[in-house]
Amino acid sequence: MPGYAPTPVVGMPELARIHQVAGIAVKNEQERLGLPSFKLLGSSWALHERVKAVAGLSPDALIAFPDLSRIARGLGPPTLCTASDGNHGRAVAALAEALGCGCVVLLPADSAASRIDSIKGHGATVELVDGSYDDAVAAARATARARGHWYCPDTVGAEASDEERRFASDVMTGYGTLFEEFFEQILRPPDLLFVQAGVGGLSAAAAASLRRVSATAKVVVVEPEGSNAIALSFGSGAPVSVPDTQTVMACLRCQSASFVAWPILLAGVDAAMVVTDDEAAAAVRQLARRGVIAGASGAAGLAGALVASADGMLRARLGITPDSQVAVVNTEGATDPASYAAILAG
Ligand SMILES: Cc1ncc(COP(=O)(O)O)c(C=O)c1O
Fold first, then answer.
1. Tens of pLDDT along 182-226?
2. Does pTM top 0.90 for this prediction?
3. Fewer CB within 10 Å, N or C, the chain?
4. Which tens digits make up the pLDDT trace of 15-44?
């Protein structure tokens, strides 16, 4: 990818001292490959794999972006189609623009105007779906099938085809880059990694990557209150869906875990917890004090870490001690500037 560079890691020593842990390391994805979230890591790798498969190239081939663009143009070029809460759609739209493909993104109708405009800014067509994120996912799948577009999902349900599962799995593989960078950048693997979840793809990538470098580190999934399908699924032992609920953490407002993330979460995640809008907003402000710009979804992992380390019962259950090294990811910048300004204003 042109412009690829590892994103920085920021230490939060003062916050660690107040919360009685040895350190808090924040992997800062406020800018990644020119966009304000980690998301392009997933869709770029998945699309790379898809273009190769359709063009009949070797599964082992690694193709530089300009060549990928040339090959994609030779395939039609295809029109990409996906659903989004904002960031995945923006990443797919930016990729389509760079590859010379068309793009259609389906969003829940109550998505923030700034998110819609950012996607349109890459030349994509936005179609609004009267319903939840799950409804937008179902509509995007049906739209892609009806119009012959390439469906580019970051989540799949039980009904998904092999090709759809492949794409969503490759998105998770792409996210792995973030964690491989992270664990090379810090001195030793963290004792606890708090990762915010929407459909669970990012958390699955986190768990898979962390298990490769540590057998003892704990992975804690953090979800918004109400949008906690993963926590509830752990509770019932099988994937369950939740009703659509308003949250300031707009990019985590998902109703179901991804079918391809679920087995990885079940095998590799130690705990799941929820945070409130106020807790996420407080974490946004903490990050801002250290010069890290984070939207509410971006700060949710830190919110979970701060809530857990300030609570005696959670400290005991998660094994948090004054020697614990805690890691979190700021997964986005101020992707909804109006919401960000309101949070900073308290
Ligand atoms: C900013 C941000 N953080 C975290 C996530 C969670 O990723 P996943 O849906 O794979 O759990 C998303 C998903 O879109 C996101 O946009």
1. 999 999 999 999 999 999 999 999 999 999 999 999 999 999 999
2. yes
3. C
4. 999 999 999 999 999 999 999 999 999 999
Spatial neighbors of 100 by CB under 8 A, at least 6 apart, are 69, 72, 73, 77
Amino acid, single-letter form, for residue 60: D
User: Tokens representing 136?
Assistant: 């937008």
Using CB distances shorter than 6 Å, the residues near ligand 1 are 37, 39, 85, 87-88, 196-203, 251-252, 254, 297-298, 331-332
Structural domains in the chain, CATH included, are: 9-37+175-344 (3.40.50.1100), 40-153 (3.40.50.1100)
Mean pLDDT of 268-274: 98
Q: How far is the CA of 167 from the centre of ligand 1 (A)?
A: 16
Single out the residue of 174, 172, 184, 252 nearest to residue 25, CA to CA: 184
Distance 296 CA to ligand 1 centre (A): 11
